[in-house]
Specification:
With about 450 residues, the protein is mainly α. The protein has one domain. Helix content is about 65%, strand content about 5%. It contains 19 helices and 4 strands. The strands form 2 sheets. It has a two-stranded antiparallel sheet. Helix 4 packs antiparallel against helix 13 and helix 10 runs antiparallel to helix 16. The radius of gyration is 21 Å and the shape is globular. The N and C termini lie far apart (about 60 Å). One of its GO terms (cellular component) is plasma membrane. This is Putative MFS transporter, AGZA family, xanthine/uracil permease. InterPro entries: Azg-like, Azg-like_bact_archaea, NCS2. Its main location: membrane.
Length: about 450
């Protein structure tokens, strides 16, 4: 029985009865339309995820298929188990950490790194069963949660600026503006403006539409070669399927457990914060709490485990679900509709050749802006909170490593809160995390140099 059901409302069919649609003042038509809107808003991940993981040496076609399948599993589980209008797919942030911090930054082969993702997924599922995940989330101060979201957003935007050629390496100043004489750089600039204008006009699916428009401009101008096909069977999963499992012996390396820890932490905070925010928007919070959050977290955990087996980075609840919620989506039918559309999208893998780095870069930049919005929630007037939050935010892009940014925040928070006479506000979990991150920094920074 759904917590929001009205016993006076009688369902009008199977879908209505299963998802309690009428009881939540919605209709089947509205829920399906909301699901379509959510899909259009987040479909960019089908092309962005292969682009990012491809930089780590993974097969883009296999990643495309794994991305779609992980999204299908996540959306269907969320709809059936939790009956929420919230879509799940491989998340931005986790894939950036995997590609740029672990594989390219630490020099760990992607096969070995995928073993870390698989182990993190197994632990994640166990922690969700034991409800430890909810306990840890509640123990982390809200300001650090906001800082982590913003820092990952700025890091993602930085990756986009690099990929689009707007920022390049420089020996004297570390970074500098890219050359505006490179035609493909202008493709990125145009893409940013297209998406930005659509976003300003509140057009649903602005990012996805912007990617399409930018790709078409690239095709028309000859900057992007025409694809041989538009529709084909989904690429094989063989290059990535089960690699995380077959590479498990690599977990004997202590460095890999630091990687597992960061995947756990990022996944811990990402989905929980998004779930609560979207539940508030949908009006399904009850007495300040989110009903069935355990089921929602379980849907996320199981989809993360499935994605790790197929060959993609951890899944997360998508903030783009707000687009579907904004037009009336309130039940799991919205999420399942989104999952069905991801299933049909498997036929369009040839478009991967069209969606180049310069085409996906604008999407990364805009998503970074959206994630950075959480900066406004941080208590900047309280220095003991402001400094850990600031170090978390700037630490990610400046070290080119998400884990370092998180570590900086968690290391300074308990110390400054104690210095400010607020030691009682620091719970035992945060002191434990202080020790964990000292070990993490040692493993990530000292061991690779020995």
């Amino acid at each position: 029985m759904n917590e929001f059901d009205d016993p006076k409302v009688r369902p009008t069919g199977f879908l209505d009865s299963f998802f309690h649609i009428s009881a939540q003042n919605s209709t089947v038509k509205r829920e399906i339309l909301a699901g379509v809107t959510t899909f259009v808003s987040m479909a960019y991940i089908l092309f962005v995820n292969p682009s990012i993981l491809g930089a780590a040496g993974m097969n883009k076609g296999a990643v495309f298929t794994a991305t779609a399948l992980a999204a299908i599993v996540g959306c269907v589980l969320m709809g059936v188990l939790a009956n929420y209008p919230i879509a799940i797919a491989p998340g931005l942030g986790d894939n950036a950490f995997f590609a740029f911090s672990v594989v390219l930054g630490l020099g760990i082969p992607w096969q070995k790194a995928m073993a870390g993702v698989f182990v993190a997924s197994v632990l994640f599922t166990i922690l969700s069963f034991l409800k430890v995940r909810e306990l840890v989330i509640d123990a982390i101060p809200q300001d650090l949660k906001y800082a982590m979201a913003a820092g990952i957003g700025i890091f993602i935007a930085f990756v986009g600026l690099q990929g689009g050629g707007l920022i390049v390496a420089d020996k004297s100043s570390l970074v500098a503006i890219g050359s505006l004489t490179v035609p493909t750089t202008w493709l990125t600039i145009v893409g940013v403006f297209v998406i930005a204008i659509l976003m300003a006009k509140r057009v649903p699916g602005s990012i996805f539409i912007g990617i399409l428009v930018t790709a078409i401009i690239g095709l028309v101008t000859g900057l992007i070669p025409m694809p041989e096909h538009i529709i084909s069977l989904a690429p094989s999963l063989k290059p990535t399927f089960g690699v995380g499992i077959t590479s498990l012996p690599s977990m004997l390396d202590p460095q890999m457990w630091a990687v597992v820890l960061v995947f756990l932490l990022v996944a811990f905070f990402d989905t929980a914060g998004t779930l609560i925010g979207l539940a508030q928007q949908a009006g399904i919070m009850k007495n300040g709490k989110m009903p069935r959050i355990g089921r929602a977290l379980m849907a996320d955990s199981l989809s993360m485990l499935g994605g790790a087996v197929m060959g993609t980075t951890p899944t997360a609840a998508y903030v783009e679900s707000s687009a579907g919620i904004s037009i009336g989506g309130k039940t799991g039918l919205t999420a399942i509709t989104t999952g069905v559309l991801f299933m049909f999208s498997l036929l369009f893998s040839p478009l991967l050749a069209v969606v180049t780095t310069q085409v996906t870069a604008p999407a990364l930049i805009v998503v970074g802006v959206m994630m950075a919005a959480s900066l406004r929630e941080i208590h900047w007037d309280e220095f003991e909170l402001a400094l850990p939050a600031f170090l978390t935010v700037v630490g990610m892009p400046l070290t080119y490593n998400i884990s370092y940014g998180i570590a900086f925040g968690f290391l300074t928070y308990p110390i400054l809160m104690t210095a400010a006479g607020r030691r009682k506000e620091v719970n035992s979990v945060m002191w434990a995390m202080l020790i964990v991150f000292i070990v993490l920094l040692y493993v990530l920074n000292v061991l690779p140099k020995q």
